[in-house]
Write a structure and sequence with these properties.
Its main location: membrane. This protein has 186 residues and is mostly helical. It has five helices and no strands.
């Protein structure tokens, strides 16, 4: 029976990949907007008010038209793939992937909360903290791609060490960038 559903599975797979890419692009871009929005606090008036008003508009548009719809379609396409091929749920790698996906969904909804906070002029995170937060999406993306591509061939200990290494490298890069900006007087 799976052979007769296989063509449909590949359509859902294609849709899933396209919308995961869109979702990740939306997450990466929204965090950049959060950073710039937060840094607009340091600008003099009227520039500060103009920028913040524009960032609120851009964040709302990106969130409502790109990031959230892409997330929903990604999840629906993924669920459809699991429905068409339930044997995937018998594999360890799929459960690891789904765990990372749950983490990414939590990340998405925390970002949604940040959109609302910034709209109401509440700045709970600094631009440096937001830069670190942005890199968490990168770590989720890398983990999911490696799990899906390597499947059972992955040694989970080495994979975990690798992800931690990437996370540390990203944190060091963000810190170096902060120091670089500080030296330039930004």
């Amino acid at each position: 029976m799976i052979e007769t559903l296989l063509p449909y599975y590949h359509y859902f797979l294609a849709v899933h990949i396209v919308f995961v890419i869109s979702w990740m692009a939306g997450l990466f871009y929204i965090l950049s907007l959060f950073i710039y929005h937060t840094e607009a606090n340091d600008k003099p008036e009227p520039e500060k008010s103009i920028l913040q008003k524009q960032f609120v508009k851009m964040e709302a548009t990106l969130w409502k038209i790109i990031a959230t719809p892409a997330m929903i379609i990604s999840v629906l396409a993924g669920a459809s793939m699991l429905t068409l091929n339930p044997g995937l749920l018998q594999t360890d790698w799929m459960w690891v992937k789904l765990s990372f996906v749950v983490g990414l969904l939590i990340y998405h909804f925390i970002c949604q909360n940040i959109v609302k906070q910034l709209k109401n002029n509440r700045y709970k995170l600094t631009s440096f903290q937001l830069r670190l937060w942005r890199e968490l999406a990168t770590i989720f993306m890398i983990a999911i791609v490696f799990v899906v591509i390597l499947k059972n061939a992955i040694n989970w200990i080495y994979g975990l060490i690798g992800i931690m290494g990437v996370a540390m490298a990203i944190m060091i890069a963000v810190k170096l960038y902060k120091n670089y900006r500080k030296k330039r007087g930004e």
